[in-house]
């Protein structure tokens, strides 16, 4: 049996292997995403068709036809808004995995379309700085380059990270 990962391979090196990327140029993972374009197109078409449905003239005294138009209009509006809400325009935060047993810090940065753009593994003991201040996890590698700066919103997660990484409270 073969187990394949669910993300596309866009790596310049083996995944989950330490590799110094300080000399490589930063690649912008954002590009044209056809799925996002289709969602925007369908969502805007549905929203405009929900309003345009009322531009079609019909007999104003036909109550069943008005109810059918109202039903279709509301359905098109909510379907269009649902499509538009699925479009993510904000930058996603990287996913941080802390392997306490092997003393590794996995930084997985997403690309557009929920694909993995880059996965870098750092040895926790080789980091020059690993700190949690005001619920912000900060890590710097041996060359002083910032590897992680991430706000931890959940207090329970912040406490678990402090316990796992043996930070003083």
Q: How many β-strand stretches?
A: 6
Mean pLDDT over all positions: 76
- What is the terminal separation in angstroms? 46 Å
The total number of structural domains is 2
Order of secondary-structure elements: HHEEEEEEH
Q: What count of helical segments does DSSP give?
A: 3
- Beta-strand percentage range: 15-25%
Query: How large, in whole angstroms, is the Cα Rg?
Result: 24 Å
Strand order of the largest sheet: 1-2-3
Proportion of helical residues: 25-40%
Unreliable parts: none
Shape: elongated
Give the quaternary arrangement of the chains: single chain
Describe the sheet with the most strands. Answer: 3 strands, antiparallel
Helix-strand makeup class: alpha+beta
Verbal overview:
- By secondary structure, this protein is an alpha+beta fold.
- It is about 30% helix and about 20% strand.
- It has helices at about 35-50, 65-85, 155-165, and strands at about 95-100, 105-110, 115-125, 130-135, 135-140, 145-150.
- The protein contains three helices and six strands.
- A three-stranded antiparallel beta sheet has the order 1-2-3, with no helix packed on it.
- It has two domains: about 35-85; about 95-165.
- The mean pLDDT is about 75.
């Amino acid at each position: 049996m073969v187990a394949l990962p669910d993300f596309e391979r866009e790596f310049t090196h083996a995944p989950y292997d330490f590799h110094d990327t300080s000399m490589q140029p930063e690649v912008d993972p954002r590009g044209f995403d056809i799925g996002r374009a289709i969602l925007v197109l369908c969502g805007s078409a549905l929203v405009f068709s929900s309003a345009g449905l009322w531009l079609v003239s019909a007999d104003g005294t036909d109550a069943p036809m008005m109810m059918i138009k109202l039903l279709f209009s509301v359905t098109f509006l909510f379907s269009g808004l649902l499509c538009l809400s699925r479009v993510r325009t904000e930058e996603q935060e990287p996913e941080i995995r802390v392997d306490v047993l092997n003393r590794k810090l996995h930084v997985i940065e997403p690309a557009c379309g929920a694909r993995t753009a880059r996965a870098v593994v750092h040895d926790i003991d080789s980091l020059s700085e690993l700190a949690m201040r005001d619920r912000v996890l900060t890590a710097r590698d041996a060359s002083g380059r910032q590897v992680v700066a991430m706000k931890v919103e959940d207090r329970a997660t912040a406490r678990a990270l402090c316990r796992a990484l043996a930070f003083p409270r």
